[in-house]
Amino acid sequence: MSSDIILKIEKLKVKISGKEILKGIDLEVPRGSIFAIMGPSGSGKSTLLRAINRLWDLYPDVEVEGKILLEGRDVYQMDPHELRKMVGMVFQRPNPFPHMSIFDNVAIGPKMHKMVKSKEELERLVEWSLKRAYLWDEVKDDLKRKAGRLSGGQQQRLCIARAIALKPKVLLMDEPTSALDVVSTKRIEENIVELKKEFTVLIVTHNPQQAARISDYVAFIYDGKVVEVGPTSEIFTRPKHELTEKYVLGKV
Amino acid sequence: MRKVHPGILAIYLLSFLALGLLLWVLGAILVNGLPVVLHYGVQLFTANIPPPVFFFGPPPEVGLAPAIVGTLMIVFIALLISFPIGFLAGVLISEFYYTRLAKAAEHVASLLVEVPTIAAGIAIYWLIVVPTQGFSAIAGSVALSLIMIPYIALYTAEAYRKVPKLIKEGGLALGIPYSKVLFKILRGLVAPGVITGVLIALAKAAGEAAPLLFTAGWSNKVSLDPFQPSASLSVLIYKFGFSSQELWLKLSWAASFILVFMIILPLIIISKLVVRKHEF
Amino acid sequence: MTRIKERRLLALLGIGGVLVLAAIFVVLFPLLANSYTFLLKRGVELVTSMDWSPMMNQFGGLQFILGSLWVTFWSTLLATPLAVSLAVFASDLSPRRLRGLFGGLVDLIAAIPSVVYGYWGLMIFGPLLASTVYPLLQSAFSGVPLLSTLFSTNAITPQCFMTAVLVLALMITPYASAIIRNAYEMTPKDMIEAVYALGGSKWDAIKMTLSYIKSSILAGVIIAAGRALGETMAVTMLIGNSVGPFKPCLLCRGATITSIVVNEFQEAMMNPSHSEALTALIVILIAMGSVLLYLGRKISKNFVEAEIHA
Ligand SMILES: Nc1ncnc2c1ncn2[C@@H]1O[C@H](COP(=O)(O)OP(=O)(O)OP(=O)(O)O)[C@@H](O)[C@H]1O
Ligand SMILES: [Mg+2]
């Protein structure tokens, strides 16, 4: 069983400027699953994701305590650059490098990590990533276009392509559809289900319906603590906790 | 016709007065300087500065080359000194804003902008000219670099600060080291701001005379040796401006024209174009 | 917890930071080192006496200090209405399409070197004023108490306090205006809309905005005064360079700290006391400028950015 847990979080606490935002989180994410994290705004979902790939390292007023194990290795003992290569991240708002071309946005990661040996290999990888992110058809004729000129939904899919180009083991997605319309949201949801074949996906969402539609497991977070966690079908049909029930029914 | 409030009228009048006077300065440089430049043509840029007519009769060749070359060389060396310092300090101020060193550097840079430039000149006189027992272009460059550093540092800091955190994190989340994110990935984003800072600093430095008077000294001949004294356009304008010789007064106008319209104006125009070209 | 070791990056950037700190010492240390013995021994004479005669070993520099303050006061006074008007004009009254061009023009004008302003004043502006405006001023105020002393002089010359003051006022106007404009454009739009909603006119809106940014205007003016105080080349070329005792007069020739240093430092290199006295005057200049800068930045903290753009 434990070999099927790709990511294990133990007693994770995060303090920002002395204020405890995460108050002891325990989670186990099974390999090859879509694991949804739900919870009201400000409950600490983004904070949790940013602890996993150690983005908090750069902020002097943030303290992280507890353990995060990726494939059994303590991420805080790893080289952060290696860790972040293994753990891709898609942010709450699209953040491509606006001044770079579509191609370069996707290519920059593999190039910097020296993952490819030839130009052809790089081109194949970029194409593969853009196809996985369902962006290829829209941009294949003009890969030199500046990323800043794409629409919000396209930018977000470009960020997905950029993240998966590194072939990460785990993909962290922070409300990837929060800024998008229904059509783009549907596209991206389809992508995510598709992506699970290759990556384990940890996705934050505000939206219970979205969690129900795409995820295998759900954790419900409230005020920096895990209130309830389990298979999606169970959480949505038989919530044990009153708060979860309210949230699932849209009452919180 | 609609009645205009006298207060607004006053604002218009005062603005036009100020603008008119300022344009007058520009116009005077053009009207008095351009004809001299056109009259002497190429030799102005290639020949040495003529000795006083009073003693030696009309000179065979009239040129400003030593001053032009001097200004370019002194300012270029000043850039070599000030760019690395200003750029690194600027990135520090923006990205490690929470360190004491960054805070102190930002504070000092904002003070240095306001230090009278003559003070930099006199300080470098004591620090370099006295121990080395002589004026030198490089002493002038050091004095000018003190003036350029804060501009480059503050513009660089501003350029990096303007990049949203989210974009920097986008790079970090790919496992790219911070230094590569800052110096490689963001290069295209910060370049316009940094280049603007450099160009503004160059424009300021090129026109400064006070820091050069007692550091770079003077030379009537073209000199490319940074350890020798050197003329400069700004010092020439001052020196010759007080003379009673027609020719030297004309050369002061020509030097003003070259300084303002051929060096400073292009720098400012380029800085505007750089910013415009990079807008998304 | 382990943190990313961005040590090497921080060390590299730190070199730049340390060297910026060093820069201020590079300015201050040589000045202090070469003036403190003089200041200790003869500082009192320097700031209280007006007998300046390096050959006779007399170093009374009060007239230069007063000259600097006098020039700064008048040029700031004259620049203020110009700068405020220009700021309002640029951000509120000028045609929208011309604003870009206008901004570029002001940038260029702000970049004209001091020595070029000086030369223009010396060759064109000063002589013109001396042959037209100054005689008029003198006769207009000749009977008026107090004001007559401002304009009384034996001989009108193109180079005098007034010429320096006027050119200096012109030079600091774009600069003060940039700071004021920065504050003007940051005024909340809803406040202005409220003025219009109450039936106010454009003029009421401008008055409201100006009163809202009063402190920024004051700060901008004080910082501009600091620049006038340290301004060197134009003043040296226009002030007339008389080392005699200071008189509160605008049409008289005079000297400032910066002008006396430019004029005498070359010859002072032969005479240690002389060069130390001039260095001490520079130290005093920096001290006076620091007071202005401190006041200006204390009143309004937000425009270091505008300062570097000006
Ligand atoms: N950089 C920061 N500085 C200070 N407080 C922060 C910072 N980042 C997050 N917080 C605080 O931490 C708490 C959790 O924030 P977080 O962004 O993790 O919430 P979230 O669950 O992702 O909410 P949302 O659904 O709105 O994105 C909030 O109270 C927030 O104010
Ligand atoms: Mg969030």
From TrEMBL, chain A:
PROSITE patterns found in the cross-reference section: ABC_TRANSPORTER_1, ABC_TRANSPORTER_2
Gene3D superfamilies given in the database record: P-loop containing nucleotide triphosphate hydrolases (3.40.50.300)
Name of this protein: Phosphate ABC transporter ATP-binding protein
The species this protein was found in: Ignicoccus pacificus DSM 13166
Stored SUPFAM superfamilies: P-loop containing nucleoside triphosphate hydrolases
GO biological process: one example: phosphate ion transmembrane transport
Keyword terms of this UniProt record: ATP-binding, Nucleotide-binding, Transport
Domain ABC transporter: 7-248
One GO CC term on file: membrane
Highest taxon listed in the record's lineage: Archaea
Classification via InterPro entries: AAA+_ATPase (IPR003593), ABC_transporter-like_ATP-bd (IPR003439), ABC_transporter-like_CS (IPR017871), P-loop_NTPase (IPR027417), PstB-like (IPR005670)
UniProt keyword Membrane, yes or no: no
Pfam family, one: ABC_tran
UniProt-recorded Gene Ontology molecular function terms: ATP binding; ATP hydrolysis activity; phosphate transmembrane transporter activity
TrEMBL record, chain B:
SUPFAM superfamilies according to UniProt: MetI-like
Domain of life, per lineage: Archaea
GO cellular-component term (any): plasma membrane
Keyword Transmembrane recorded: yes
UniProt entry tagged with the keyword S-adenosyl-L-methionine: no
Single Gene Ontology BP annotation: transmembrane transport
Membrane-traversing stretches: 7-31, 64-97, 109-128, 134-160, 181-203, 253-275
Xref: CDD domains: TM_PBP2 (cd06261)
InterPro entries hit by this protein: MetI-like, MetI-like_sf, Phosphate_transprt_permease
Cellular location(s): Cell membrane; Membrane
UniProt KW keywords: Membrane, Transmembrane, Transmembrane helix, Transport
Entry membrane topology: Multi-pass membrane protein
Domain ABC transmembrane type-1, first and last residues per copy: 68-270
Pfam entry (one): BPD_transp_1
Family: Belongs to the binding-protein-dependent transport system permease family.
Entries under PANTHER family matching the protein: PHOSPHATE TRANSPORT SYSTEM PERMEASE PROTEIN PSTA
This protein's name: Phosphate ABC transporter permease
Organism per entry: Ignicoccus pacificus DSM 13166
